[in-house]
Amino acid sequence: MNNLAVISLGGSIIAPDKVDFTFLKQLNENLRTYLKKDKKRKIILVCGGGAPARVYQEALRNIIDDAPSEEQDWLGIRATHINGQLVKAMFSDLCTDNLITDPTGHINFKGQVLVAAGWKPGFSTDNDAVILAERFEGKLIINLSNIAKVYTDDPKTNPEAKPLDTISWEEFRLMVGNNWTPGKNTPFDPIASKRAEKMNMKVVCADGRNIQNTMAILNGEEFVGTVIG
């Protein structure tokens, strides 16, 4: 599918504290314009959990000591399902499949849009995006969150951290490590990174709140972000 765009839509921009419907409305309008220009174009949107995931995971940690990782993951996954169902409803006329919660299961993908959310514990929705890109022959994943670029370190804790335009998978994976913990805040999940490197995929990390920048990435124009791979 050469006309396929796979977008990992971070929960941090769908629901940073509550649902950002102004952002979603703009995204809806712009993606529809993009799809209308060429009926062969297709988009896969994979939705993260955002605030609902953090709120429920934190609640569990406050209720019981040593809250099991798997239970925290399930709370995060259910939060992605709420966000995903909202985005699926937004594109209901272009999306003939139900919300995808198992990227390896039966998928028609007859419409122009496919919407997916969390699958099972052990990784984030970034990994689901890689599995779907692999399945439908997408070579680029656009990873949209609330950060404009990948930094050499966490800029919140290290003022010396520098933004990067490009980084290899080898260097990136040294930064993020190999293990996943629920709610882990990395530009792209370590498990997804391992899989994307193996598949020789490219990932663009960019600030999803800048809709014009997202459209520039989709249209192959100059953009602000970091290319991994």
Strand sequence of the main sheet, in spatial order? 3-2-1-4-8-9-7
Which regions have little confidence, pLDDT < 50, spanning 5+ residues?
A: none
**Number of spatially distinct domains:** 1
User: Would you state the CATH class?
Assistant: Alpha Beta
State the shape: globular
Give the quaternary arrangement of the chains. Answer: single chain
**What's the story with the biggest beta sheet?**
7 strands, mixed
Q: What's the arrangement of secondary structure elements?
A:
Elements (H helix, E strand, L loop, with lengths): L3 E6 L1 H4 L6 H16 L5 E6 L2 H14 L5 H22 L22 E4 L8 H11 L4 E6 L4 E2 L11 E2 L1 E2 L1 H8 L13 H9 L3 E6 L3 H8 L7 E3 L1
Parallel strand pairs: 1-2, 1-4, 2-3, 4-8, 7-9
Antiparallel strand pairs: 5-6, 8-9
Plain-language structure description:
This protein has 229 residues and is α/β, with parallel strands linked by helices. The chain has one domain: Carbamate kinase, CATH 3.40.1160.10. Helices cover 40% and strands 16% of the residues. The protein has helices at 11-14, 21-36, 50-63, 69-90, 125-135, 169-176, 190-198, 211-218; strands at 4-9, 42-47, 113-116, 140-145, 150-151, 163-164, 166-167, 202-207, 226-228. The strands form two sheets. It has a seven-stranded mixed beta sheet with strand order 3-2-1-4-8-9-7, sandwiched between helices. Helix 6 packs antiparallel against helix 7.
